[in-house]
Amino acid sequence: MRAAAVIGDLSNPFYREERQRDVWNEASAVALQVVLVLSLLAETAAVWIIGADALPYVYALLAIVGIASWIAILYARSLGVDVDDPQRMWRPRMIPYMAVLALLVVGLVRATLQDAPPEDWSTIAGMVTGGLAVMAGWLYACKRSRARERD
Question: What are phi and psi of 138, to 5 degrees?
Fold first, then answer.
């Protein structure tokens, strides 16, 4: 929490005025969503256009954006905010994300196959296993949020 306060400059007098703080929070939320969409689109384009040579850069960008996203989620959770609250999440909004993510995964597998010799299937098996684990986690989270919604 102390690191977040320093990184975010949360003691700045700017945050004392409520309207400024609310507008900045909304602007930051919009900017985070734009970064998520643009990075996914850039990663997807890179693996389809450039191919295997783009893999290290795509993985680095995925890690950077993923870490930043998790920091936002964990920070909110540490302050008692449930970001998975089904009341606040509009599920159809996730459809374009999932479509681009599917294109990215297929592109990653395609680029990896370009780079890996045919006998090196362990990398592909690891990617498929990881993808399935992510999908299982996402489906579990959806099921859990629906169960909470009914309660």
Answer: -65, -45
In the block, tokens 């909470």 appear at 148
Cα dihedral 109, 54, 36, 87, rounded to 10, equals 10
pLDDT, averaged across the chain:
81
0.90 exceeded by pTM: no
**Beta carbons of 5 and 11 less than 8 angstroms apart:** yes
pLDDT of 122 > 60? The answer is yes
Reported in sequence order, the residue ranges of the chain that DSSP labels E, i.e. its strands, are none
| C-alpha 57 chain-centroid distance | 16
Pairwise CA distance, residues 66 & 40, whole Å: 11
Q: How far is CA 139 from CA 12, 99, 106, 145, in A?
A: 40, 16, 19, 10
